[in-house]
Amino acid sequence: MSFETLGLCKELLKAIKEQGYETPTPIQRQAIPVILDKKDILAGAQTGTGKTAGFTLPMLELLSRAKHAKGHHIKALILTPTRELAAQVGESVELYGKHLPFKSTVIFGGVKIGPQISKLKGGVDIVVATPGRLLDHLMQKTIDLSHVSFLILDEADRMLDMGFINDIKKVLAVLPKQRQNLLFSATYSQEIKQLSDRLLNAPTLIEVARANTSSEIVEQSVYLVDCERKRELLTHLINEGKWKQVLVFTRTKHGANRLSAQLEKDGITSAAIHGNKSQNARTKALDDFKQGLVRVLVATDIAARGIDIDQLPHVVNFELPNVSEDYVHRIGRTGRAGNQGEAISLVCIDEHEYLANIEKLIKKDIQKIALKGFKPDPSIKAEAINMGGNRGARNKPRGTGAKAPANKPRSGQSRNAGRPQK
Questions:
Q1: Which candidate, 272, 380, 393, 398, has a CA 20 to 30 Å from the CA of 129?
Q2: How far apart are CA 67 and CA 289, in angstroms?
């Protein structure tokens, strides 16, 4: 099947060709015809499956077919959980819609609201937004959603995890009742099912990969190591493997900053990205990483959810996530668009239970490696990971700083936990 067979207009086909794409991905083959039939969909698709084009292309096609009143009114609204994802979805809308007459804009927090207001006053057809900043505009009456005929919730599971459910409900309350709705989620939780029941009208279910499974083209391995020697091992792996681009995950913002600084001391260019960084700092760090100006990008889970790099070769879990599903999202950063990828986890004795839960979730035993010179000390006993502080002094790292504390479980997050990401 080619894009020509999907019923897309010549302007979209031209833009697709200019991006170098010839064959639609499974999610695109399944979703585009259903969306063009003006049906609601509930799509289970992880990152790297081509889902953004899977909803952007048919959205633009339907907008081009419709007869609209003169002038620009917001006809399509795309909600995303993070700034980074909003920016990248907005970029896709511009790339694929470059030969069509529609105007689009992206609105999120962390930047001044004035320029966004000016852009909205000038008239736009498509808005990509994070829930928090969209509510700010609604409260200030600087945005008109009364003409929206197309609503897309991208990575809805992450929006719920971040506490945006009430924000989403407030947005739904001001939208026209007659509209087409698309909901994309990497996982199917009870909350997602409840949201879909509220939002979708007789939806078509589309699922391109079994929920909560790891990509088969990602080579996964675990390096067993004492927690205080993780940074040393990471530096060794980067240097020995001559890695040029690696995304590293930590549990906490403080841990990301500290590890990035330590890698710089080891002579490895690095940058950290997390919710406490300004939007300009986050954008610069991501751009520098994509351009190869820094070899390592250290990120927390929420900040990394919007990172979209087609040929990222390496992902490292410096610390395992305490929520098993996040492991799937993390390693989904590599092995994208048919490319091979490598996902490595540095696991200390404290994290063995997390590892067991992850293997149970993905229904797969991950290869364990005890590298010579870094084998764990068998005399060290497991301790519960302290959710609010560092490990005891007896395991204090040798000159690397104490082990990063873990985040509190997501189930305990409040709405405000997600607000810095709006």
A1: 272
A2: 43
Q: Write out the two tokens for 161.
A: 């995890």
State the helix-helix crossing angle for 10-18 and 51-65, rounded to 10 degrees: 150
Give the separation between CA 259 and CA 270, rounded to whole angstroms. Answer: 9
Distance CA 151, CA 175 (A): 9
In contact, 310 and 322? CB cutoff 8 Å:
no
Q: What is the pLDDT of residues 212-246, one digit of tens each?
A: 455 556 889 999 999 999 999 999 999 999 999 99
CA nearest neighbour of 184 among 314, 59, 316, 78: 78
> Residue 59 has what DSSP assignment?
H
- Model pTM score: 0.60
Q: What angle do CA 74, 77, 81 make, to 5 degrees?
A: 145
Correct CATH for 3-207 of 3.30.830.10, 3.30.70.20, 3.40.50.300, 3.40.630.20: 3.40.50.300
In order, the DSSP letters of 251-268 are SSHHHHHHHHHHHHHTT-
Which tens digits make up the pLDDT trace of 3-53?
Answer: 889 989 999 999 999 888 888 888 899 999 999 999 999 988 766 678 899
Return all residues near 410 (Cβ < 8 A) that are at least 6 apart: 161, 323
Q: Which of 306, 348, 263 is nearest to 87 (CA)?
A: 306
Question: In sequence order, what are the beta bridge partners of 184?
Answer: 43
CA 60 to chain CA centroid, nearest Å: 23
The two three-digit tokens of residue 366, written as one number: 């991950």
Spatial separation of the C-alpha atoms in residues 342 and 314, rounded to whole Å: 5
Instruction: Look up residue 414 and give its two tokens.
Output: 């409040």
Ordered alpha helix ranges (H), 107-146: 114-121, 131-139
- Rounded-to-integer distance, Cα 93 and Cα 98, Å: 8
Amino acid at 271: A
For helices 279-290 and 83-96, give the axis angle rounded to 10 degrees.
Answer: 60
Helix (H) or strand (E) holding 290: helix 279-290
Considering only CA atoms, which of 392, 417, 415 is closest in space to residue 402?
392
